[in-house]
Each structure stands twice: as C-alpha cells, then as structure tokens.
Recover the amino acids of this structure.
C-alpha cells in the first residue's frame, strides 16, 4: 500500500500556526510550520519539516497576551520573517511538490484543533487573493479529536504523554515544535489503528479521484 492509497488519494500534511490572537480577520499569522510524512512498509513516519516566520499583515492587531504565550518577539532581527503572501506561496509550493511525489490529488490538513488553523489559513488566502489552495476546503484530520478517542484527552501535551511521547512544555507554542509533536502523535495513532483496505471484487479499492 502507498501513502495515497492509505488516505484515499489525499496527502496528509501536519500544520501548526502561531498567531497574534484568536480572530483570523484582525489578528495576524506569525509563525507557520509544516511536517511532511512518509509511508513505508505500511508504517507512517515523520519525513521532513519546514517553518516560516511571518510578518503581521498591514492593519492587523497583535494581542500582547498571545505574544506572552508564544514567546514570539516581533522585533527580533533574527526572525527573518516573510510577508504573509510570500510565506504561504512557499508553503503551498512544497505541498504541491509532495503531492506530486506521492501521487496524491489533494492535500488534507492534519492539525491539533484543526478548525483554528484551517480558519486562519483560509483567511490569509482570501486576504492575499491566493486561489490555488492545495488543501481540502473543509475536511481535516484533527488530532485533538483523534486523541480524545485514542487516549481520552484533547490537550496536545497530555495526549503525547499518554501516548508515551515526550513533550517539553518550555517549547510549547513554538510552531515547529508543536507541528513535530503533532506529527509524531498522528503517526502513532495511525500505526496503532487496525486497518485493512476495503476490498471490492477481490481487489483493494484505488484512491478516489
């Protein structure tokens, strides 16, 4: 079985966003990280990761409480932040390359409390007139929901600990760290789930187009 067959033709991409608040209309995207996955010998594993620091869009409002939680210093000269449009275009380019590599027709977002990340990414695309979003417009794989079923908890740090994965609280709310931990948690849940391809007429079904 290939990766595209395991997820019905979709490429799972683990995403974490750190933002300047909870309102995607006025609060900016500040960090974006994605983790790509690999499928080999019917086992899902972490393959690679990329992150971007993002400049707040013009006219946005940054909630100081959000900066205290994330530890982001917008004045840090080492941030080397890109503007929102450039960061998202680079991100989407990597996703499309991975889709082509794995023979997937669309990407699907894997995220912890995925509706939050989906909402911010969609708002950023609309703000920057980015039409070619490779992700499914509404379907996602939410690890908070999956962890509630598998481990009885929705908080990322607690779910990781219950799954036997380490979690460093001092690194929490860093987009790259949270994306990597979310990816490891997702892989563990997928690999531990009893799964057999649906068989029709004696043959496994192929991914939907």
């Amino acid at each position: 079985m290939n990766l595209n067959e395991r997820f019905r033709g979709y490429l799972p991409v683990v995403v974490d966003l750190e933002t300047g608040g909870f309102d995607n209309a006025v609060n900016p995207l500040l960090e974006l990280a994605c983790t790509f996955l690999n499928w080999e010998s019917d086992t899902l594993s972490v393959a690679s990761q990329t992150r971007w620091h993002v400049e707040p869009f013009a006219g946005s409002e940054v909630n100081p409480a959000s900066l205290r939680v994330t530890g982001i210093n917008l004045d840090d000269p080492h941030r080397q932040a890109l503007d929102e449009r450039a960061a998202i275009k680079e991100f989407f380019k990597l996703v499309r390359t991975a889709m082509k590599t794995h023979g997937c027709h669309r990407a699907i977002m894997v995220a912890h409390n995925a509706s939050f990340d989906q909402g911010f990414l969609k708002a950023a695309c609309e703000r920057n007139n980015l039409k070619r979003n490779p992700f499914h417009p509404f379907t996602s794989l939410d690890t908070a929901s999956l962890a509630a079923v598998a481990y009885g908890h929705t908080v990322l740090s607690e779910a990781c600990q219950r799954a036997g994965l380490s979690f460093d609280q001092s690194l929490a709310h860093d987009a790259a760290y949270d994306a990597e931990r979310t990816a490891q948690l997702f892989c563990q849940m997928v690999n531990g789930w009893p799964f057999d391809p649906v068989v029709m007429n004696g043959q496994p079904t192929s991914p939907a187009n």
